[in-house]
Amino acid sequence: MIIYFQVHFFTSLFFLIFFISDFFLPFFTSLSRLWFSRRETMDRMIKCTNCRRLVPKNPRLKGQSFCGRKPCQQARKTEWQRRKMASDPDYRMTQEASQRNWAGCNQDYWGHYRDRNKTYCDRNRQLQKGRDARHRTRRLAKMDALKPVFDVNPGRYLLLPNDKNLAKMDALMVEIFPISTR
Fold it and tell me: Is residue 137 assigned to a domain?
């Protein structure tokens, strides 16, 4: 009886372990894969500079900081072009020449644009009048404040003491000239 119990117990235990491992093994392996590779997964993720989303890193791109969404790629291109214009004078001159060339070939573009977008142009015209009025008042205040005042004519002068009781009347020769603060 004891031998039968031991054999039956061990075979039952074996089948139970086999069944559990067969049934739960995929779950445990995927769980362990998630648990142990979480750090590796986080190393393969980046935070997009534009949209701040956590996205998988492209292994082909070193120093990737933008995701592949269209607005983010447009922001990446705009940032690159801004840096390039600031750092490369040849690129800047080429871009300016290209813009001048385009404007020369499309001289009537802005006229057609204003014809097509009447409400936008009228609104902008009204807003610009307000901006001009604010700018004009600011400039007037500054013009009054910066009016140069110099009461003494530049030249050489003799400085004498104003006290009449002095026995010795020493005179100083001085030269007066304005100093510009601008």
Answer: yes
Task: Please tell me whether residue 47 adopts helix, strand or coil conformation.
Answer: strand
- pLDDT class of 175 with cuts at 50, 70, 90: confident
Domain span holding position 137: 114-147
User: For the stretch 33-56, what's the b/e string if a residue is b when 16 or more beta carbons lie within 10 angstroms of its beta carbon?
Assistant: eeeeeeeeeeeeebebebeeeebe
Q: Which tokens belong to 85?
A: 């214009």
Place of tokens 């005042």: 149
Q: pLDDT tens across 1-52, in order? A: 555 555 566 566 555 555 555 555 555 555 555 555 555 555 789 999 999 9
Q: Give the C-alpha separation, 9 to 15, whole Å.
A: 10
Domain assignment present for residue 154? The answer is no
Look at residue 159 and tell me if it is in a domain: no
Q: What is the chain's Cα-based Rg?
A: 42
- Residue by residue, DSSP assigns 113-125 as HHHH-HHHHHHHH
pTM: 0.44
Tokens describing residue 121: 């142009």
- The total of other beta-carbon atoms located within 10 Å of residue 66's CB is 20
User: Residue 175: helix, strand or coil by DSSP?
Assistant: strand
Total domain count, the chain: 2
Q: Is residue 133 part of a domain?
A: yes
Higher pLDDT residue, 72 or 12?
72
